[in-house]
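Homework help board

Subject: predicted structure for assignment chain

Our instructor gave us this sequence and asked us to write out the predicted structure in token form, then describe one feature. I got the tokens but I'm not sure how to describe them. Can anyone check?
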Amino acid sequence: MNAPLKHIVLLLLLLCSQLLHAQKKVNLEVGKSIRIATCKNKSSFKGIDVYARTTPYNKQGIDLKTGDGLVAAFFSKNASIDAKRLPCSMGGKHYKIAALQEYETDAGTKKIVICYTNYDLTLIWIDLDEAMKANEITWH
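My token output:
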């Protein structure tokens, strides 16, 4: 094969590779679903917590398309909230993404996915990096 033809073939292979990679990449979006895997250690998850309130919260200021306002409303200062690792019984299911958050910590940027559950007074809090390392989540 002559040199110019070799370069064209290599360029085409590179472009095809990039197109296939771009098609596989899926972004998390509010309103889409995320699947929480079944528990691997049979007790709880490593990067996923569940938060439960004892009283209803004001949902009027929440933008359902972006999730803006959800954290402030759910974690309002007068709320009584219980937090624990997500139990295995809540694994193996899909949950709707309610909000996406990023927080700066001493260790760097923390990426959080917040999901609704079937219970109005609970939210699932996913530490994205930890949950991905432990293969606890997938999304489409």
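Reply (TA_rk): Your tokens look well-formed. For the description, you could write something like this. Residues 4-25 have pLDDT under 50 and may be disordered. That's the kind of observation they're looking for.
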